[in-house]
Amino acid sequence: MVAALCQQYPVNKEEVVKLCNSILNGASTESARGVLYNSFINLPNFAEWFVRQFDQVNPTVAWLRKTGDSTRNAILESRKTLDNLLVSQAKSGASNDAILTMAQEAVESMIERLPETILTALAEQCGYPVPPTMALRELPGKAPSLFTSISVWGGIMRKTFKPLENERNPRISDMGDVLHSHYLPHVDFFRTDGFAASVIQEIKLPFNTTIVGNLLQLPDAITRRLAEKGAF
Predict the structure, then answer these.
(1) Residue 210 pLDDT class (50, 70, 90 cuts)
(2) Domain termination residue (choose one: 13, 39, 54)
(3) Whole-angstrom Cα distance, residue 72 to residue 63?
(4) Are 216 and 157 in contact (CB under 8 A)?
(5) Tell me, what's the pLDDT at 197?
(6) pTM to 2 decimals?
(7) What phi and psi, each to the nearest 5 degrees, are found at residue 3?
(8) How many domains does the chain have?
(9) Do 146 and 81 belong together in one domain?
């Protein structure tokens, strides 16, 4: 029973045992709730529970994770195919320019279709019978979080599919950056890692949010923002 409770709820073994002992010793309902409350607000407990119950917590997030993983694998396979083509071209003494141009055009076409692809898939995931027809240019005002995540997703794809300019392969954590970017349009400061910050700065989102790619730079960023608003 203890293991089942730990699996299903954000509690650990010690807290479940403490709760059981409280009940067996005649503790009040309020006291038992206090034990549960302290367990639920324990961030490590919640984080571990979220990992265990990820797919059940949010089916849409689970779908995005699966889709992101598929995208990452597709990019890796495409990079591998392109690398083989470039090696063959080099051996034949021919220029790589035409192949690189075609590859980049294919990536840009994929990125251009990304909003429609994601919106259609999300509609199907949520059970809507008719796929939405919303152009990317409409998204900032109607769905700023979705617009931001799709833009960041496309920016990551563009930045990781440059074999001669960027040796960075797509990572599983990239989808975390995509999901995290949901918050960007709604905050004054958006703290993220250096790679995600560089992607966001390159895609030039239409929001007045300060992007901070280094935690140590956050105090100065806040000071500058306050000075701009005349707070000093």
Answers:
(1) very high
(2) 54
(3) 14
(4) no
(5) 92
(6) 0.60
(7) -60, -40
(8) 2
(9) yes
Question: pLDDT of 49-59, one tens digit each?
Answer: 766 766 665 66
Pair (15, 75) in one structural domain: no
Hey, which residues does 189 pair with through a beta bridge? 210
The helix or strand, by DSSP H or E, that contains position 68, with its residue range, turns out to be helix 59-92
Question: 112 and 24, same structural domain?
Answer: no
CA distance between the termini of the chain: 58
On whether the CB atoms of residues 31 and 22 are closer than 8 A, the answer is yes
Q: Which residue has the tokens 């009040």?
A: 28
- Indicate the DSSP class of residue 173: T
Same structural domain for residues 135 and 66?
A: yes
Closest CA to 196 of 167, 151, 156: 156
Based on the domain organization, do 37 and 125 belong to the same domain? no
Tokens of 90: 């080099």
Tokens of 150: 């799709």
Which structural domain, as residue segments, surrounds residue 160?
61-228
Tokens representing residue 45 in the block: 């407990």
Per residue in 171-209, pLDDT (tens digit) is 767 777 888 898 899 899 999 988 899 999 988 888 999
Tell whether 86 and 20 lie within a shared domain: no
Q: Element (H or E) spanning 117, and its range?
A: helix 97-126
Torsion of CA 89, 93, 98, 103, to 10 degrees: 20
Is pLDDT above 80 for 114? no
Same domain as 126, residue 12: no
Residue finishing a domain among 11, 35, 54: 54
Alpha carbons 84 and 62: distance in angstroms, whole number:
33
